[in-house]
């Protein structure tokens, strides 16, 4: 967390802790939520989605990621004090109180609820089903080694809603694209989790990085391989044109590069590799556009 960024320079001091609580200062997570959702919108629309739908889903990704981060910090406020990377978060460091964080959470949920008016009934029910997933996620690391799976389900839920709102149905190809994105997130978030594995061991919390241990490269390579297979299947099922599969090959090469660079003994590389998955998100959109428009 940087204390000389745009939040410190351009927002009123009283707003800063709330911006950091919902991670406005750390937009990588928002992009990784939004980009696969935009790809699903393109595929569901068989080309360009409407500008209105693009706006609603982009705003929804921003808001729900903020809600998830706020809930996470509320549950983890005591744990975060003992982790070097998180001990300066607003709630943990005392910049805001628990009551203020809860009020802010309710305000975010109210705004999210207003977005329900802009989507169809099927998608509204899906949006409501997402809420318990977002709430449960921060608790998962207390009892399972697979919190990244729950995170991936929640982060990529908008992909299912993209199909339901555009076509009022979710075809098998859309589900395959979503499951692939869930596994993709399990892979890249596990890479990131290796940064905290020593702290997690001391605190008694769990992650896929702890489950994989020294076999992390093998596990993540397998996860990425299944991800790519599901995305390729989705393209065939939707009869997308050949450029889609060419870009899938590029994504496969990127995954191979990640695994070549990744090392559990070099956690300093992990955040760079985590951020590099924004490239994958852009490539998924490019593949979807190329496969539908060309």
UniProtKB/TrEMBL annotation:
<comment type="similarity">
    <text>Belongs to the UbiA prenyltransferase family.</text>
</comment>
<keyword id="KW-0808">Transferase</keyword>
<feature type="transmembrane region" description="Helical">
    <location>
        <begin position="51"/>
        <end position="75"/>
    </location>
</feature>
<keyword id="KW-1003">Cell membrane</keyword>
<comment type="function">
    <text>Catalyzes the prenylation of para-hydroxybenzoate (PHB) with an all-trans polyprenyl group. Mediates the second step in the final reaction sequence of ubiquinone-8 (UQ-8) biosynthesis, which is the condensation of the polyisoprenoid side chain with PHB, generating the first membrane-bound Q intermediate 3-octaprenyl-4-hydroxybenzoate.</text>
</comment>
<feature type="transmembrane region" description="Helical">
    <location>
        <begin position="242"/>
        <end position="262"/>
    </location>
</feature>
<dbReference type="Pfam" id="PF01040">
    <property type="entry name" value="UbiA"/>
</dbReference>
<protein>
    <recommendedName>
        <fullName>4-hydroxybenzoate octaprenyltransferase</fullName>
        <ecNumber>2.5.1.39</ecNumber>
    </recommendedName>
</protein>
<dbReference type="GO" id="GO:0008412">
    <property type="term" value="F:4-hydroxybenzoate polyprenyltransferase activity"/>
</dbReference>
<keyword id="KW-0831">Ubiquinone biosynthesis</keyword>
<dbReference type="GO" id="GO:0005886">
    <property type="term" value="C:plasma membrane"/>
</dbReference>
<feature type="transmembrane region" description="Helical">
    <location>
        <begin position="122"/>
        <end position="140"/>
    </location>
</feature>
<comment type="pathway">
    <text>Cofactor biosynthesis; ubiquinone biosynthesis.</text>
</comment>
<dbReference type="InterPro" id="IPR039653">
    <property type="entry name" value="Prenyltransferase"/>
</dbReference>
<feature type="transmembrane region" description="Helical">
    <location>
        <begin position="96"/>
        <end position="116"/>
    </location>
</feature>
<feature type="transmembrane region" description="Helical">
    <location>
        <begin position="274"/>
        <end position="293"/>
    </location>
</feature>
<dbReference type="InterPro" id="IPR006370">
    <property type="entry name" value="HB_polyprenyltransferase-like"/>
</dbReference>
<dbReference type="InterPro" id="IPR000537">
    <property type="entry name" value="UbiA_prenyltransferase"/>
</dbReference>
<keyword id="KW-0812">Transmembrane</keyword>
<feature type="transmembrane region" description="Helical">
    <location>
        <begin position="175"/>
        <end position="195"/>
    </location>
</feature>
<dbReference type="GO" id="GO:0006744">
    <property type="term" value="P:ubiquinone biosynthetic process"/>
</dbReference>
<keyword id="KW-0460">Magnesium</keyword>
<feature type="transmembrane region" description="Helical">
    <location>
        <begin position="28"/>
        <end position="45"/>
    </location>
</feature>
<keyword id="KW-0997">Cell inner membrane</keyword>
<dbReference type="InterPro" id="IPR030470">
    <property type="entry name" value="UbiA_prenylTrfase_CS"/>
</dbReference>
<feature type="transmembrane region" description="Helical">
    <location>
        <begin position="145"/>
        <end position="163"/>
    </location>
</feature>
<dbReference type="InterPro" id="IPR044878">
    <property type="entry name" value="UbiA_sf"/>
</dbReference>
<keyword id="KW-0472">Membrane</keyword>
<keyword id="KW-1133">Transmembrane helix</keyword>
<feature type="transmembrane region" description="Helical">
    <location>
        <begin position="216"/>
        <end position="236"/>
    </location>
</feature>
